[in-house]
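[audit] Reproducing an earlier prediction to check determinism. Same input, same settings, fresh worker. If the tokens differ from the archived copy the diff job will pick it up downstream; this log only records the rerun itself.
[audit] input (342 residues):
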Amino acid sequence: MEITIGKRKVGEGHPVFIIAELGYNFSTKEEALESVDLAADAGVDALKLQTFRADTLVTKDVDFPPEAGGGNQHAEFRRYEISEDIHKAVFKRCRERGIEPFSTPSHAQDADMLERLDCQVYKIGSDDLTNLPYMTYIGKKGKPVIFSSGMGTMSEVADAVAALTAAGNKDLMLLQCVSNYPIKDPSIVNLRVIQSFARAFPVIAGFSDHTVGVEAAVAGVALGARVIEKHFTPSKDNGAPDSPFSADPKEMKALVDAIRNVEKMLGDGVKKPTKSESDMRRWTRKSLIARRDIPEGKILQEGDVIIKRPATGIQPAQLGLALGRKTRRAVKADEVLGWDAL
């Protein structure tokens, strides 16, 4: 399966699509633009914002759960609403730097604004996994859709996939996700869900990483993730709610480098010797060696030979073919035994 996002191809045989989830980890337009530059310098493929209006996202009297820091949700989201002007500036800078800009809209009006900016892919957050009318609305825009599965069950994921495909959208990327910020217990990450998604649904599977560090994302790639999303911040101490557990520029660069190295290590799955192993095969594998001086015309017996390095003579697997043959010439002790001598 292959999906085109802007100028990039995503799927098997293509580089992992690495997303820096900037969200609202900034306070000014200037800091947002600096973040784009830092993310591009780190080597990511895309930078993602979060597009919302507090009034269309949450009621005014609900708090975050304690594990998410508590506090009034409406007040926080009101504080970090991102204007269309900042969206335009970020999208423009991303395109100048050669990375794909997009966002997670939280309402139809948000998605319509992103459409005005020619957004090439949409992200649907875990909070909307069961919001099937919204899934349908986004799916009908005809753009590739990335959606997260945090807090979800397999049946809820199946319903979401069905809603998007029924809307006529087959360009789907489904991310394993655990909605803790950050994840403190590695045992709940459940990376094997990536493989379950790839087997169960007509999607490109990936991983939205809320852990601290790079190990989970790298392991996800090894398990087949073709999309990796990681929260990103220009500075862990800039006061934004998500910044403390987000990757800073140095960590994001390490993440990208690790993923690119792992991609190379994964190879094509065909077991064969590499070019760099050719000399190693010759000089560290084994062949038949004369155990003692062997005169010309002697019938070769097992006691006449020993198997040891190098592998420039008759191969050990051919011992049975060599025994019982006469020597054509005298063979010295410790000489590599070749077929020319028999």
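[audit] rerun output stored. Observation attached for the diff report: The chain has a mean pLDDT of 97.
[audit] end
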